Amino acid sequence: MLIRVPPSSRALESEVTPESVYLSRRKLMQGSLALAAMAAMPGLASADAQGVYADVEPSKAPGWFDEKLAGARWQAITAKGESITPFKDATHYNNFYEFGTGKGDPAANAGKLQVEPWTVMVDGEVSNPGRYSIEDLVKPHAFEERIYRLRCVEAWSMVIPWLGFPLADLLKQVGPTSAARYVRFETLVDPERMPGQRSGFSLIDWPYVEGLRLDEAMHPLAFMAVGMYGRVLPNQNGAPLRLVVPWKYGFKSIKSIVRISLVSEAPQTTWERIAPNEYGFYANVNPQVDHPRWSQATERRLPSGLFSPNVIDTRMFNGYEEVAGLYTGMDLARYY
Amino acid sequence: MRYRLWRVGVFLAASVPPLYWLYCAVFNLLGPDPGKVLVDNLGLGALILLLITLAMTPLQQLTRWGGWIAVRRQLGLWCFTYVVLHLSGYALFIAGLRVELVLRDLSERPYIIVGALAFIGLLALAVTSNRFSIRKLGRKWKTLHRLVYAILLLALLHMLWVVRADLGEWLAYALIGGALLLMRLSAVAGALQRAGVLFRENPKKIEI
Fold it and tell me: Which residues are recorded as binding Mo-molybdopterin (chain A) (predicted)?
């Protein structure tokens, strides 16, 4: 279990126990008992409990990550009333086809991924193009923690505490020109360490490509993650740098990014190329627009036990209705 | 009953996988989405059992050992059992027992429709797999049970539409299935030839 231990001097004023509570010992004891009971049931820990996550595998993070972690703003965005998915599930049930199509393949095969050193090519319609080291990309931004729902297009979902910074901040750093209308992202190609890229029967034309409209990318909810559960990103979750767009299906949130291009035309994304009738460019979570092969009206919130199946209703934009303004006047059944 | 031990052995072997998966599910060894894993495993298990069932006749022709045919019906019924569990798992874990979801899937989704057709076919074969039906249906029984070839094609199509990005595994099953069907073609041709020869020699020896 990884417990964040901030320096003892770093207590915030808001964390000081109010005098009235301090004086009423009985209430305080009840409160601490409730906290202890919650900590004892990791699966039930509420999403707005303080940043302590149960059963998190410890990890050795690169220097640039540790430097920033100390100043992180915890729980900047929370998911009210949601239970956070256990760390083990979020790291051992993944779609990352570069490492194989099985849900357990990424955890089994991603150990070999080389995440240090890491550079990201920034090109296209930007005023500061070039090859950036991950250190240079991350340095100007303060970390914050955001607890987001993640809805996979396969109709399962999780709730994950990410660490990182807004995508908008990174874009401002590289300076899109007036011609930039879309952002195109690319995942690493490394067949030697990514067995999925060696498969002769794969329908995917590597590298994996994703994209956003520039105004979507600039939306404050669009996020670049470098960590989760208070630690650095595990390789199978897209280390060292990945996108998180909580109102879109999970496949939009591209992992292990090596290239970011600002472009004037909509990029063709990987899944659009494979099955354009099933996966559109927008891929907004939408319970009214079904995948041709399955319903999107409901989702299995994981963990969904065998004797307690957890099938819940899917929400428009995955519950992030504040993005609706990006799509005013658009027929979302046509632009799925 | 002939081949008693062999039959019991096959029975036990076919019952082990679902029991093992149930054990894994109970002890949380299937990950956070055990229902989906069970449904997938049972579906794939049913397809493998169907291929094994279809391999019994060619094996018998090859080896002249009657044991293959002695377990053929049992294996077919195991395939049906896996499919019933696969369907129950889908209704329970994927559709969350919401009837309107199941009905919509059944009316809209090609791979569900194809799967349902394969199930109806298997159901027809399962209910007519007893001795009474064989006697009652006579010649029609054999024609009816040739439906199994169509069921194999439907099952393969059902699986193909589930695969999202890597065709490798599907291709392996499709090749095996194709080979088993091809053996039918040549076997049927061969058997017809032999029957023809026998008929010319002694018409009374013909049995179907």
Answer: 94, 97-98, 152, 187, 237, 242, 253-255
Share of chain A above pLDDT 70, in %: 85
Binary contact (B171, A305; C-beta < 8 A): no
CATH code 3.30.499.10 for A68-327: no
Report the range of poorest mean pLDDT among A41-45, A247-251, B149-153: A41-45
- ipTM given for this complex: 0.71
Which residues on chain A are in Cβ contact (under 8 Å) with B171? 201
**B168 and A311 in contact by Cβ < 8 A?**
no
Secondary structure of chain A as H, E, C letters? CECCCCCHHHCCHHHCCCHHHHHCHHHHHHHHHHHHHHHHCHHHCECCCCCCECCCCCCCCCHHHHHHHCCCEEEEECCCCCECCCHHHHHHCCCCHHHCCCCCHHHHHHHHCCCCCCEEEEEECECCCEEEEHHHHHCCCCCEEEEEEEECCCCEEEEEEEEEEEHHHHHHHHCECCCCCEEEEEECCCCCCCHHHHCCCECCCCCCEEEEEHHHHCCCCCEEEEEECCEECCHHHCCCCEEECCCECHHHCCCCEEEEEEECCCCCCHHHHHCCCCCCCCCECCCCCCECCECCCEEEECCCCCCCCCEEECCHHHHCHHHHHHHCCCCCCCCC
Closest residue in A to B161 (Cα) is A293
Of B34, B93, B168, the CB nearest to A199: B168
- The tens digit of pLDDT for each residue in A267-280 reads 999 999 999 989 99
Locate the chain A residue with the closest alpha carbon to B111. A293
Name every chain A residue with its beta carbon within 8 A of the beta carbon of B25: 306
Domain ranges of chain A: 68-327
Which of A157, A251, A295 is the best mutation test for B, with the most CBs of B within 10 A? A295
Domain ranges for chain B: 4-205
To the question of whether residue A139 is assigned a binding role by annotation, the answer is: no
Task: Average the pLDDT over A233-262 and give the result.
Answer: 98
